[in-house]
């Protein structure tokens, strides 16, 4: 087993996993900046993915880290109703990690890059105490589509999600309890936490519907993210019991002593798409998009209810209570 | 003294220091992505700025950290012969730092953003063991200018720099020895290390000269960066004695027992501009650009000499020797 001994070793590894030739890229890695061909409007997002904050090496294999670090950023682009175009990477690397481990991390990241056709156009690298990744991803409108923002909902709109809310939370709890041994009993939930499956086709289809008022990436749980999605002064009446919650989500909710709907609504790291549209359109869309589920309606007063009961909460890295 | 207790507190602080209204920004912070109006081609760069790797809190005031973290990225854009357009920020924050300290960091970063007219369009935030920043900055060609790449030099071209090479290295040594007390004896050198002055006007002027073959941001010292700047198969004969090295650089070189030219060429964190052009043009440019200094010529064989002596070296975060 050997270690990567220089920046050059890292760059060689990156060169093997990330081809640079791409219609979007005029000049790739190796200069002060990348040079990119751009559409008239782009969307851009950046996310941290840090050891012991966002993942644990105890149960994340390096491939999982590589995959998820890119997927969570791509999910933000899909949540704008947009197609991802490219990404850059900042990496901190403890010097005691073997070369093979990095090889596997970049292989995982390369899988997600290839799946979405994304060039890695540049980055920065430093020794550091923990494995840390900061990715920036940008995208363009889907052909024939338009960017979908938050804050455009209207009272009476139906709210919907695409993606299994609560499943990643079930996976996190299982992994925290038993590490990768939990994968035997909770294969779907652990897999979703280790790297969510994204919904580019749904993003594309929804971006082309002018009556879809907005889209959003659900990453902190519906309870926290729905209020961020609504136009000012609005609230929502949620009811997700009809969403065919995954059996592993139901099992973990019961083990936690929480109603499954509440467990799923608190969620976190779902990386589902949340959208709003007139009710008849949502009914029609659910026929065309398997996995789309109506989760309630927009109300004309602030406040969130779940099955009629007021709902609070959410996750904040800095809250001390 | 109080601490920032939530992400909201950070976002409020950021809102105070970074206005969002900007012709480049369609939609700023607060959605899954920012939406940006873009020219046909952009350049993009990303850099880490990490506690105890790139700065020490022992002698960097929070304003310095804020200023330098953005300046080093802007420098990469200027090094492409480009005008910066906007930036995003990932931040890791120990939870035991006072709110006032963050206020000062964002005030420093806001100064540099205002100086270059840059909107902060988005970011991410996490608790972390050390203060860590990962910034992404992008830019567009200066009006009437063109991007300037590496690797376009021709044998016989004159090489030049804009910026005081070696000065930041002198400042780093002084700060490492005596902390901020070193600012009394080495005011210019310590100031340059704490936050380099950039050269946007020189970048603009040079980007408009078709005969300027390329530009580059010198961040690892001339000895390491000149070979990266040259076209394959080329070398350079450097002679920087004529560059009026700063008296503080000369003093620190002598204290280190190194010829000042060598000390300056090894440099590091100069954030100077390095360029190449035909000799007559360089003579003309040095009249128009105070601070521009011819530092040698491109040769048709690999290898670097300084005042006739072969030169190696450079800084690599991972090299163990």
Automatic annotation (TrEMBL), chains A, B:
InterPro entries: PurM-like_C_sf, PurM-like_N, PurM-like_N_sf, ThiL-like. Mg(2+) 5 binds at residue 220. One of its GO terms (biological process) is thiamine diphosphate biosynthetic process. It comes from the Bacteria. Keywords: ATP-binding, Kinase, Magnesium, Metal-binding, Nucleotide-binding, Thiamine biosynthesis, Transferase. Residues 30-139 form the PurM-like N-terminal domain. Its EC number is 2.7.4.16. Mg(2+) 4 binds at residues 32, 45, 76. Mg(2+) 1 binds at residues 46-47, 124. GO terms for molecular function: ATP binding; magnesium ion binding; thiamine-phosphate kinase activity. Mg(2+) 2 binds at residues 47, 76. It catalyses: thiamine phosphate + ATP = thiamine diphosphate + ADP. Mg(2+) 3 binds at residues 32, 76, 217. Transmembrane segments: none annotated. Gene3D superfamilies: PurM-like C-terminal domain (3.90.650.10), PurM-like, N-terminal domain (3.30.1330.10). SUPFAM superfamilies: PurM C-terminal domain-like (SSF56042), PurM N-terminal domain-like (SSF55326). Pathway: Cofactor biosynthesis; thiamine diphosphate biosynthesis; thiamine diphosphate from thiamine phosphate: step 1/1. ATP binds at residues 123-124, 149, 219. Reaction mechanism of ThiL seems to utilize a direct, inline transfer of the gamma-phosphate of ATP to TMP rather than a phosphorylated enzyme intermediate. Belongs to the thiamine-monophosphate kinase family. Catalyzes the ATP-dependent phosphorylation of thiamine-monophosphate (TMP) to form thiamine-pyrophosphate (TPP), the active form of vitamin B1. This is Thiamine-monophosphate kinase.
